Amino acid sequence: MSAEPTTIAPHGGTLVQRLVQGEERQVALGQVSRLPSLTLDAHGVADLGLLATGAYSPLTGFLGRADYLRVLHEMRLTSGLPWSLPITLRITDGAALRDTVALKGPDGTVLGLLDVRDVFTHSKEEEAQLVYGTTDAKHPGVAQLYAQGDSLVAGDVRVLEHPAPLFPELALDPADTRRAFAERGWRTVVGFQTRNPVHRAHEYIQKAALETVDGLLLHPLLGPTKDDDVPADVRVRSYRVLLERYYPRDRVLLAGFPAAMRYAGPREALFHALVRKNYGCTHFIVGRDHAGVGNYYGSYDAQKIFDRFAPGELGVQPVCFEHTFFCRRCGGMASPKTCPHTPESHVTLSGTKVREMLRSGVLPPPEFSRPEVVQVLADGLGGARMTWSTLVSTLRRIGGLLRRFTAGVQPWDWDELPVRHWWDVYTK
Predict the structure, then answer these.
(1) In the annotation, is 195 catalytic?
(2) Which residue in 29, 149, 339, 393 is a FRET match for 86, CA 20 to 30 A apart?
């Protein structure tokens, strides 16, 4: 089949390319030793790489004052194009910066050049409130913002060295995914963003969406995340085992999304959709509390934000799902739209609870996640399968759960307790 472009244009109409190659690259490298330099942190390196490949189209560099302010207050660029997150470079003091500066990675490697167009300052507290909906320094995105410098440096970038990907085999740039979609004959593609392992609820909504389009781009975020998130290498192994056994291979493409996680809730959900449009997706799945953290956002705020734009203005179609779960009485996956039973019949767990269980060696039940996925996660997080006696010891440390757990049961019966008995108690 001949490769034809997908039906969706990049955001702004053109896929930006800021990676400098050939003779132009050699000339630029020759300038580096004579230029002042800025060292990027891991978040800045991630942004630079995504600017290079056009994932952030139509952006050609870090935002200037006018674009920055309009993004903060209106979620638009000065051109009027929707854009929800400020892509900026903050440094301690930019007063002396002029013309061109070299951009280096944390290890000192020269990654690119920044043609300085503007240096300005703006209240971090206002940015935090408008982007994250809070000024609370306990919010991971706000904490990251507060840790940065006060000066914002704007200008176009020229990338000389593409940041090395964590997983080269998954490093597909927007041009690569668009080519892959065309080669497979996919004209409609739904994107799925995740920083977590894919559990039953995710699988359910992915396959429901896949019923209506040609293909699925499973696009896990592989850039910097919170310390307590599941490590990227463990997650990638879990994605692979799931896709190999439970998904049609000709309908799914797994690729890495090398962005930093901002935990900006609704605004980041919109941002994720626009960026996946650049990768060639015509549709984008938005679930419950997309890109959320803690209790900072409402369960469906990330879906409601799309209603603030006129139909067709974004160019990518959100596919919204309610909270999904395994219902014991229904005998399968369901949502409040399809299940009439009370929450007592539902198997639901937060990502935090799952991580706590796995690290202590307790394996979640198959109703929550495929056993193969659970085993990969347990192995990766260092937990061994917990025996009943160890479980009881853990519950004793936790506290009052032990009394409910052992009510009417003799110690010698602990190994005979049905799985559902201890599971019901542990998760209450």
Answers:
(1) yes
(2) 29
Q: What is the pLDDT of residue 364?
A: 87
Map tokens 């506290």 to a residue: 399
**The one-letter amino acid at 381:** L
Active-site choice (18, 195, 288, 355): 195
The pLDDT tens digits of the residues spanning 45-96 come to 999 999 999 999 999 999 999 999 999 999 999 999 999 999 999 999 888 8
As a whole number of angstroms, the distance between CA 237 and CA 240 comes to 5
Domains and CATH numbers, the chain: 22-159 (3.10.400.10), 387-428 (no CATH)
Query: pLDDT tens for residues 307-361?
Result: 999 988 999 999 999 999 999 999 999 999 999 999 999 998 777 778 778 877 7
Residue 348: Cβ-neighbour burial (10 angstroms; 0-12, 13-18, 19+): middle
